[in-house]
Specification:
By secondary structure, this protein is an alpha/beta fold. 49% of the residues lie in helices and 12% in strands. The chain starts with 8 loop residues before the first helix and ends in a 17-residue tail after the last helix.
């Protein structure tokens, strides 16, 4: 989400009043009847100041897309990161300020025109006081939007048309190595709320089909019972994207987690992503001589033995990926009342 630079109230007022003064100064050299000149100068000062402030508010409002129009992943992302309700409230406050300043522009322009020239300066000062009051009332909203800009600037760029694979598993099981093997390049790393490293996104193409691989350190690598509500919300956001999940076991257990723990995590992820197919990958097979103890964890139809670091088993993974179909998440249209 591209949020433009957010000014402080003082910066907004300084810009408006400074531009207003310049426009007023330009009028001083014009040939205007003496009894009208003072009024025209102060009217121009007030109107210009209002317009400059309004233009800046409008540029912010126009630049921020309507949240409901965004993909559900981005809606959840914004909610997790800064809060959708807070964002709407801040934008609503700017819209309110825009409306009030529009009223003040008309009200005080009219007052200056209707009153004697000697009162024009006093009315202009009164207008500036009210404009400043309105702008200062949205200080917390401008502060919030500046906070949102900083926190949303590295929002990951998602290809919603690509078939998307999410990699899951405990830390140090080989997720990043596998990502590099499948995509053949260093993945894009993008910040994601409540992860330490940010999600990694890799892209590849197979048989004219775009494939997007997402690795999520800190989200899908610890038991659900240990996750807080915010982390659970982040998982829900990913649920909007995944067409399949590659769950990686470290068959050697050199990652520091026993296979029992890894298997329990798999079962929890299958429960959360119940509608999404899961492929099990048993990694680091190059470190194992006897595979007998793996049998109780293996699903013969849906398990692949690999060594990500050696590149072994990658073609088998790709063959699975080739068969993955994009999940249709488009909401069903409401039935037409005329037909029943």
């Amino acid at each position: 989400m591209m949020i433009p630079t957010i000014p402080t109230p003082q910066e907004l007022l300084d810009k408006g009043f400074s531009r207003g003064k310049k426009q007023a100064d330009l009028m001083r050299g014009q040939k205007i009847p003496k009894h009208l000149k003072g009024k025209r100068i102060e009217e121009r000062r007030v109107v210009t100041s209002c317009q400059v402030i309004k233009d800046k508010l409008k540029s912010i409002l126009d630049a921020v897309p309507e949240i409901e129009s965004l993909h559900p992943f981005y809606q959840d992302y914004i909610d997790i990161t800064v809060g959708v309700d807070d964002m709407k409230q801040a934008l609503g406050a700017l819209n309110w300020a825009y409306g009030i300043i529009t009223q003040l522009e008309k009200e005080y322009g009219s007052k200056i025109r209707k009153n004697p020239s000697e009162r024009a300066t006093a009315i202009q000062k009164q207008a500036y006081g009210r404009i400043a009051s309105v702008v200062n009332k949205i200080k917390k909203d401008l502060d919030f939007l500046d906070f949102a800009k900083q926190n949303l600037r590295n929002m990951p760029t998602i290809d919603f048309d690509a078939t998307t694979i999410v990699i899951a598993g405990f830390p140090n099981v080989g997720k990043s190595t596998l990502l590099r093997q499948i995509t053949g390049a260093d993945p894009q790393v993008a910040n994601y709320p409540f992860t330490t490293k940010g999600i990694q996104i890799g892209h590849t193409e197979r048989h004219w089909k775009s494939i997007q691989i997402i690795d999520t350190p800190g989200l899908l690598d610890r038991p659900v019972l240990e996750m807080n509500d915010i982390e659970m919300n982040a998982i829900v956001a990913l649920e909007h994207l995944a067409d399949a999940i590659l769950f990686i076991f470290d068959a050697s257990e050199t990652c520091g987690f026993h296979l029992d723990n890894q298997f329990n995590l798999l079962k929890q992820i299958e429960k959360i992503f119940s509608e999404i197919p899961v492929v099990c990958l048993f990694n680091k097979m190059d470190l194992i001589e006897d595979t007998e103890y793996l049998k109780e964890y293996i699903d013969d139809e849906n398990s692949i033995f690999i060594s990500a670091i050696e590149g072994e088993g990658i073609e088998k993974i790709n063959a699975k990926i080739d068969k993955i179909k994009k999940i249709d998440r488009m909401p069903e249209e409401e039935p037409d009342d005329e037909y029943y």
